[in-house]
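Design request, tokens follow.
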């Protein structure tokens, strides 16, 4: 025990890190031990548990499955902002959406996915961009799916409420068109929220949908995975994208492994799905 809280033994660290990897594909190296303790000490206090031995017992007990969800919520990093890496949204508005919008007006579905959406700023940035290009999107079959592994972040994103500080990167004209003032800041308007769906989803687990997407944003999530998990994710995205669909990833990420053959480089961390068949994995 330290003044900051209980100590995490080597055995306990390996156990918790192993569960996190098993559930999410996220790698917790020794360098992350202090961060893990800082995050989980708050959880121990919330549960009135004396130490990590008691916490590991909880993970092994009947409450283990539910607690493992709390564990993932505690260790995931939720850093996001409106129009972060804005060149992606400029590309989306200028090059990607216009031909898709024309097809959507003729009856084709339009599907976009913000994977690892955190508190929702990315998903709403996609929605603002879409509505600026496709002003009548609400009257067509256009849908934005926003998912995250952290149920608390999903709930927060679904509310569509943002502080004045959070809204600073948004152009004032866009704020006026797509948000309304509320006491806490701004709320996304009904047209925008009507074409969005929010769900808890583990990128490392099952994906409960079969349709393909036209655009997928998954930025700064794969950096937490080891190479095998990351390469499996790229393959799954390749299978989930329509031919010609776009994948946007984080500024420090690069698409690698067998899935590379399925994509052409379009711009900085922007890839287009080509017609190459998705390689099978054993």
């Amino acid at each position: 025990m330290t003044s900051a809280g209980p100590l995490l033994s080597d055995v306990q660290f390996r156990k918790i890190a192993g569960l996190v990897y098993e559930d999410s594909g996220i790698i917790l190296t020794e360098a992350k031990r202090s961060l893990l303790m800082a995050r989980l000490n708050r959880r121990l206090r919330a549960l009135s548990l004396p130490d990590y031995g008691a916490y590991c017992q909880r993970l092994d007990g009947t409450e283990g499955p539910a607690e493992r969800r709390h564990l993932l919520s505690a260790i995931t990093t939720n850093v996001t902002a409106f129009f972060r890496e804005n060149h992606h949204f400029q590309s989306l508005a200028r090059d990607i959406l216009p031909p898709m919008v024309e097809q959507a007006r003729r009856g084709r579905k339009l599907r976009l996915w913000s994977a690892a959406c955190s508190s929702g700023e990315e998903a709403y940035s996609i929605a603002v961009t879409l509505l600026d290009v496709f002003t009548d999107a609400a009257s067509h079959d256009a849908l934005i799916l926003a998912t995250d592994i952290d149920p608390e972040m999903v709930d927060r994103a679904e509310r569509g409420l943002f502080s004045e500080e959070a809204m600073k990167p948004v152009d004032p004209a866009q704020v006026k068109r797509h948000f309304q003032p509320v006491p806490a800041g701004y709320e996304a308007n009904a047209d925008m929220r009507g074409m969005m769906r929010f769900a808890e989803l583990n990128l490392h687990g099952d994906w409960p949908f079969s349709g393909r997407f036209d655009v997928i944003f998954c930025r700064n999530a794969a950096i937490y995975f080891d190479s095998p998990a990351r390469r499996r994710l790229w393959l799954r995205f390749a299978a989930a994208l329509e031919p010609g669909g776009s994948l946007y990833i984080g500024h420090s990420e690069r698409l690698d492994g067998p899935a590379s053959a399925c994509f052409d480089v379009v711009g900085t961390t922007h890839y287009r799905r080509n017609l190459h068949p998705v390689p099978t994995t054993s």
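Comment from the thread starter after seeing the answer: thanks! Residues 137 and 217 are 19 Å apart (CA to CA).
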